[in-house]
Amino acid sequence: MKLGNFSMIALAYFPICIYCDWKERRGMWHIQHVASIRQLKDYVMTSILFPTTMFADLMFWRIWHKDLSLIAPLRIFTYLPYWAQHSLHTVSMLIMLLDLLLVPRRRPNNLKPGICLMMAFMLTYMAMCGISFLNGEVVYSVFQIFDSFKLFLLAIMVILECLFFYLVQWYIVDFVWCPQSYDGTNGKKLKAQ
């Protein structure tokens, strides 16, 4: 159940990361548009990319080991080798974890805006999948197998699990980037006072 918009968002996310880092290295960190882009980039990473990628990739591997027919028609796996699954569903998860561990961040004072952005993304994606299904386009094989009640339960599980990953990331950030020693503006540690 890869939330397919990850690829499209990541296509914009990674070049923006490079641009922001390039501007920072040139001493242009405090220019208004660079600061705004960096804030938006961090918001997208923590509210959309990290929670949905962790959910989708871990869900994929749980389903992979349980029942391949829930992922796609079985004939597709004769053309898509096992290593390709890792390039699609392991590499993206590792990249998100590395980004979380290597890019200095600080827990926001209020988590509600990030949760709202994540929910808006997820509900939009679920609505797109539902509309496609009603138009005869089956996005995921599970739509043909599950009845309405099971699909509702799946949607609740998706939301709860993404919320779990959204909240867990801030504990990781707190552990790696202790808020008392990081100023959050230029990636440098503050001097002990």
Automatic annotation (TrEMBL):
Pfam families: Far-17a_AIG1. It is found in: Endomembrane system. The chain crosses the membrane at residues 6-22, 43-63, 83-103, 115-136, 148-168. It comes from the Eukaryota. It is a multi-pass membrane protein. Its main location: membrane. GO terms for cellular component: endomembrane system; membrane. It catalyses: 12-octadecanoyloxy-octadecanoate + H2O = 12-hydroxyoctadecanoate + octadecanoate + H(+); 12-hexadecanoyloxy-octadecanoate + H2O = 12-hydroxyoctadecanoate + hexadecanoate + H(+); 12-(9Z-hexadecenoyloxy)-octadecanoate + H2O = 12-hydroxyoctadecanoate + (9Z)-hexadecenoate + H(+); 13-octadecanoyloxy-octadecanoate + H2O = 13-hydroxy-octadecanoate + octadecanoate + H(+). InterPro entries: ADTRP_AIG1 (IPR006838). Keywords: Membrane, Transmembrane, Transmembrane helix. PANTHER family: ANDROGEN-INDUCED PROTEIN 1-RELATED, AT02829P-RELATED. Belongs to the AIG1 family. This is Androgen-dependent TFPI-regulating protein-like isoform X2. The gene is LOC106124427.
